[in-house]
Amino acid sequence: VQLVESGGGSVQAGGSLRLSCAASGNFNCMSWFRQLPGKERERVARIRKDGSTNYADSVKGRFTISKDNAKNTPYLQMDSLKPEDTAMYYCAANILLFRCYGDSWLPSYWGQGTQVTVS
Question: What is the pLDDT of residues 57-80, one digit of tens each?
């Protein structure tokens, strides 16, 4: 299994970025997490095979997760970025169906991350 993120970079506050995750494998759901400096990794958004989604409260209305099923690639469109969104962003995938619902987001696999910096 490989998850390779791309699309990170530096942007001014109020700007936008789109993250992509090239994925190999068949997963019940895919997610984006982020880790701020000195903090624990936190959930950002999740998308299931049926297209249903979940978002962290901190990004609702600003971030949109989507997935190109043909390419097996999830995306995270990030708009109205704030300095507090600065973090390493990780793509994650889950093969366990029960971890694709409720509060259980623990992934089966992680990508290596892509840095997003908002100034």
Answer: 999 999 999 998 888 899 999 999
